[in-house]
Amino acid sequence: MKTLSEMTALITGGSRGIGAAIAQRFAAEGVNVVIHYLQSHEAAAETARFCMESGVKVLTAAADVRSKEQLARMRDKLEQHGMMPDIVVNNAGIAHYGLLSDVEESTWDDVMAVNLKGMFLCTQLFVPAMIRQRFGRIINISSVWGMSGASCEVLYSTAKGGVNAFTKALAKELAPSGVTVNAVAPGAVDTAMLDHLNHEERAALEQEIPAGRLARPDEIASLVYFLALPESGYITGQIISPNGGWIT
């Protein structure tokens, strides 16, 4: 089995927020990282610079996770650089807020394509190499709303519920091959996804959470890193929700 310093982690949507925190945590622990992004080139480059300070190999790669062709080109790029991932963190995702009656079909398609199809395509492309080496870690970033549902977030809740079901089923399929599949389903995290909240709304949200605050991105990254460790090989098919006691 490879040591951590010989491994590579691919983080989709790794240019900022939770994804950037995950990339930086892996780099700090000596793991080589691939930072995937769609359009945020400058943010990806900045995250890459932080990771490089840890002395690891870092690669940035742009691709639309909705496109199998673009992801296949990204895989070829990784292979050419000797950075095929031992760890895949499916973090890329988009949210939607609004009444179901107001949702356009195209919006439904887009939310499902990014959150579900992207995870499926990326996993499908990189799993064969993990099976061949009889080691791999697939960690899907879900949401507490995929477990409990949220009013006016039917699309997002449905997509993340699908992430959870995908995780449980694939874990059973890949367990004999030494590949674990888990999901991290955070509660409210202090990232740009909550920038639409004003001060009063944010304060009200924090009061709902028993811990009395939002999660920091690095706290989510710590859990992802733990699940990626070789010694975490008996943990698979789990949906783990760091949410400060908000949803139990």
From TrEMBL:
Gene3D superfamilies: NAD(P)-binding Rossmann-like Domain (3.40.50.720). Residues 7-220 form the Ketoreductase domain. Signal peptide: none annotated. PROSITE patterns: ADH_SHORT. It comes from the Bacteria. NCBIfam families: EF_P_mod_YmfI, PRK07231.1, PRK12826.1-2. Belongs to the short-chain dehydrogenases/reductases (SDR) family. This is 3-oxoacyl-ACP reductase. It comes from Paenibacillus cisolokensis.
